[in-house]
Amino acid sequence: MAQAIGIGGFFFRARDPGALATWYAERLGVAGDASGAPWQQAAGDTVFAPFSEHTDYFPEDRGFMLNFRVDNLEALIEELQRSGVEVQRNDEWDGPHGQFARIHDPEGNPVELWQPPD
Question: What span, in angstroms and rounded, lies between the C-alpha atoms of 83 and 17?
Fold first, then answer.
């Protein structure tokens, strides 16, 4: 059977696409824009998981939550906080699947940061 072999892109609406692309590049190192320039990401696991429409795992008023694998969660949290980004941590989120933190981009989209276990 032919099948999907990876995520080819994530496309979403933004009030100010250029400013939001710059924010993601400067805060998280995610390079990409509406021109289609690809972001070369590190190979690794990607979780594809539809959630119940009533989930409380991410804000009810949002249809999605981005999740980025990160290489050093603690260092990234410090950098984000220094740049004025509010970071949420919850010990209950951490466990056998790794460590997690949450932020919101300037347009209010929820973003989960995930450092998988070694």
Answer: 20
